[in-house]
Amino acid sequence: MLLTLSPSKINIYLNCHQQYYFEYLDPEIAKIKKQLKKKRVEMEMGSFIHDSLTLFFKNPAEERNWPKMVEILKQVWQGPRGETYGFKTIEQERDFYNQALKMLKWFVKNENLKPDVFALPVSPPGNSFDDYITIPFGENLDLGGKIDRIDKLANGNLEIVDYKTGKEKDDNLQLLMYVFLAEKIFEKRVEKVKYIYLKSGNCPTITPEAEDKEKAKEKIIDIANQIQAEKDWAPHVSKLCDYCDYIAFCPAKK
Ligand code: SF4
User: Is residue 161 within 8 Å of 153, Cβ to Cβ?
Assistant: First the structure.
């Protein structure tokens, strides 16, 4: 059976096989999945920030400044969003709004606002599913994902940028998956790829070499083989269970 792996699917599988089963395979859960999905304020804030940055770069370079960013966040947030979006109180929502402003302020102050933008998500406005791209990657295996921004460097090669509003990661697999996606779709070399951690201001950058790509490819295929052969879907209890939408159905609930 064809399997499509994205960075988030891999994260879920590596965190907990049972959660992966619930999320992508369980036919009973599939019927009620929409009702089970809880709005999480950190995720909502993250998605408003991503949308704001996309819209920001859709403006002409000379109009990209702090007042424009403030205006865009206000439009995107359309607040107060309230409990439908997981915000328990107006104070909590205000706090998250201010956190978003702080991260975007850091961005405007420290990042290059006039890169040669090569590709941006088509949404917003519209549906973010439109931005999900897939490529064939092996026997019965496709890779999928959504790339935040791609810039063109002076030599014609590409640089991929991935915005992060949460915790810092210590592996580059996600970045290398984006390299595979962009090189296949645009038929251009990706020379650099980086995370921009908007909370800390850290921007780890890698220059993907053939050896890095080979190792990443082996790892992805190994994970795909494990998923294809998986029979147990064992739960893995961790602090991430607090963020799992399927905890009520989990065999490890106790
Ligand atoms: S509650 Fe925890 S152990 Fe159970 S499926 Fe979710 S993440 Fe896995």
Answer: no
Q: Which structural domains are found in the chain, ordered by start?
A: 3-249 (3.90.320)
Mutating to test ligand 1, I would choose from 18, 29, 33, 239 the residue with most ligand atoms within 8 A of its C-beta, which is 18
Give dist(CA 89, CA 66) in Å, integer: 28
State the distance from the centre of ligand 1 to the C-alpha of 15, rounded, in angstroms: 9
Residue 208 beta carbon below 6 angstroms from any ligand 1 atom: no
Q: What is the DSSP letter of 31?
A: H
Residue whose entry in the numeric block shows the structure tokens 């950058």: 205
**Does residue 17 line the site of ligand 1, with CB under 6 A?**
no
Is residue 246 within 6 Å of ligand 1 at its C-beta? yes
- E strand segments, 120-184: 133-138, 141-145, 149-152, 158-164
Please name every residue paired with 196 in a beta bridge, in sequence order, or none if there are none. Answer: 163
Q: 154-195: per-residue pLDDT in tens?
A: 999 999 999 999 989 888 999 999 999 999 999 999 999 999
What's the 224 CA to ligand 1 centre distance in angstroms?
20
Tens digits of residue pLDDT in 123-146: 897 777 889 999 999 999 999 999
